[in-house]
Amino acid sequence: MKRYIDTDLWQKQWYMDLSLKLKLLVRYMYDNCDCVGVFTPNWRLISFLIGVDVTEDDICELNNHKVLVEKLENGKFFIAGFVEFQYGELTTSCKPHIRYMEELKKHGLYERVCKGYAKGINTLEEQEKDKEEEKEEEKGLLGGKAADLPLNVPTSAEECMAAWNSLCEQTGKLAKIKTISDGRKRKLKTRFKEKNFNFEAILKAIPSQPFLLGSEGWTVTFDWLIESEEHYLKVLEGNYKNFSQKKGGGRYGSGTGNASEYGDVIEK
Q1: What's the confidence (pLDDT) of residue 257?
Q2: pLDDT band for position 259 (50/70/90)?
Q3: I want to staple 110 with a disulfide (CB 3.0 to 4.6 A). Which of 105, 140, 207, 224 is the partner?
Q4: Is the torsion defined by CA of 28, 33, 37, 40 positive or negative?
Q5: DSSP assignment of 5-56, as one string?
Q6: Could you give the CA distance from residue 176 to residue 168 in angstroms, rounded to a whole number?
Q7: Residues of 80-107 as b/e, b for ≥16 C-beta within 10 angstroms?
Q8: Is the pLDDT of residue 81 over 90?
Q9: Cβ atoms within 10 A of the Cβ of 113, count?
Q10: Is-contact 118 131, C-beta < 8 A?
Q11: What is each CA distance from 239 to 130, 150, 206, in whole angstroms?
Q12: How far apart are CA 154 and CA 26, in angstroms?
């Protein structure tokens, strides 16, 4: 089964902190899970392939570095974020997605993955509470009260879209977005909780970094920017100011300057 590979994985701090055994275990799980990120462990086979004894305790140790895998009631394991990374937001208008939705239903994961309900949210009272929280977030109260933030800092998904599209008009080199999908809202919900996420400052840092504006053939996108903390931090830190002149390997922070090496980040 062909699938996307997160080539940025090797630059992520939590992955760099893992032992060699855990690094191989992560790669094994990503490569051998089913189409929605669920896999049935065969510890004897995994140990044989990796070349060292692997048990369920290693999953617990892995989750101590990053909560990545969850054990389901049927004894199988589910990789968090796998579906969103591979397919984006699932929709019935896309025929291949229908199959993935059916698989999620078989595993009892459909509500959580497709509708965003967290584990354990299964009562009407809890669902109503979640909806109320979402309404508050849409009003600009994510990550704290709007009054406590600098005046021009976007504090809602809609404000982020407006700020991004304004930057696109100013530069004339970036692609505007037409809507804030549920998938984008979920990602922004996570970003707003991160102390370093100041969308105004992030956008202001973009024009001074030619690589982000297409100097090497690739331009930054709204979705790439909000995909992870690692992405926007690199923009804030100015990693792309002289990106094409940097020597050595690596996708971010140092590179060859060959834009074709970075084109797939648009899909993430």
Answers
A1: 33
A2: very low
A3: 105
A4: negative
A5: --TTGGG-HHHHTS-HHHHHHHHHHHHHS-TTSEE---HHHHHHHHTS---H
A6: 6
A7: bebbbbbbbebeeeeeebeebbebbeeb
A8: no
A9: 21
A10: no
A11: 37, 25, 10
A12: 36
Q: What is the 3-state secondary structure (H, E, C) of 213-258?
A: ECCCCCECCHHHHHHCHHHHHHHHCCCCCCHHHCCCCCCCCCCCCC
> Residues 219-244, buried b or exposed e (16+ Cβ, 10 A)?
bbbbbbbbbbbebbebbeeebbeebe
Q: Closest Cα partner for 224 from 41, 22, 88, 128?
A: 88
Q: Do residues 229 and 235 touch, judged by C-beta distance below 8 A? A: no
For residue 80, give the amino acid letter: A
Tokens of 73: 């009631």
CB distance 63 to 84 below 8 Å? no
Q: What is the 3-state secondary structure (H, E, C) of 184-203?
A: HHHHHHHHHCCCCCCHHHHH
Task: Please state, in angstroms and rounded to a whole number, the distance separating the CA atoms of residues 267 and 59.
Answer: 28
Which 3 state secondary structure label does DSSP give 266? helix
In this structure, the dihedral spanned by the alpha carbons of residues 53, 59, 62 and 67, taken in order and rounded to 10 degrees, is 170
DSSP 92: T
The string of pLDDT tens digits covering residues 104-152 is 998 888 887 876 544 443 444 545 555 565 555 444 433 443 334 344 5
Which residue type does 23 have?
K
Collapse the DSSP code of 70 into the 3-class scheme (helix H, G, I; strand E, B; otherwise coil) and give the result: strand
Return d(Cα 61, Cα 47) in angstroms, integer: 16
Q: With both helix axes pointing from N to C terminus, report the angle between 43-50 and 20-32 in degrees, rounded to the nearest 10.
A: 120
Question: Can you give the residue ranges of every domain in the chain?
Answer: 9-115, 143-267
Contact present, 199 and 163 (Cβ < 8 Å): yes
Rounded distance, CA 44 to CA 193, Å? 40
